[in-house]
Amino acid sequence: MHAGYLARPFEALHLAESVLEGPYRLSPRVRALFLVRKARAQAQGRDDAALVTFREAMSLYGDGVGPSDPPWAWWVDERELWWHEAMCRSDLGDVAGALNAFERSADAVPDGETRSKFIHRANLARAQVRARSWDQARDTLAHLQPLALQVASGRTGAVVTSTIEALRKHGSAAPAGVLCQAVALSDTMADEFGAM
C-alpha cells in the first residue's frame, strides 16, 4: 500500500507477488487483498492486466467470509473494492469507468460514517472534474463543504487540493458555479485545518 501511495508501482507489484506466489496459506479474502494491491500496482504501471487481476480479486471476495479469514480483514467490503477499481481505471485512463466505480463507492458509504463519506466523495469530485461532469462536480463539492468542517485528513485534503487545481486549469471551460463551490470548499478547509 505504501509503495503504491509513493508511486513506486514496480516495488508494490514485487511485494504483492512475493506474497501471492510465496509459501503462505492465504485465506480467500486475504488473497483478494493482495490481488487488489497487485492490480493497483499493475494499473500504476499502465498494464491493462490490472483489470483481469482485479476481477479475480472480486471473485474471491464474492465467496464471502471464511473461518480462516483474520479479524483484521473486517474492512474489506464492496465500497472499498469499488474504490480500488476506480483507482485502477483512473490510472489506466478509463475516465468513464473510474467515474462509475467512484459513484458506486461513494453511494455505498452509510450516512453515519463521516470520515469515509468525506474520503469517497472527495475522490468522486476529482473524477467528476476529470470527466467534466460539471453539475455533478458542483453538487459533490457542495456535499463536501459540511464534511470538511468535521474531518481533518491530509490525504483527503490533497485530493481536494488537486481537484481544485484541476478546475483552475480548466479555466473558462468550467462553469462559474463549480469554481465558486470549489473556492468555498478551499476556504473552509483553510479556515478549519490550514489544509489549503
TrEMBL record:
Name of the molecule in the record: Tetratricopeptide repeat protein
Q: What is the lineage of its organism?
A: Bacteria, Bacillati, Actinomycetota, Actinomycetes, Pseudonocardiales
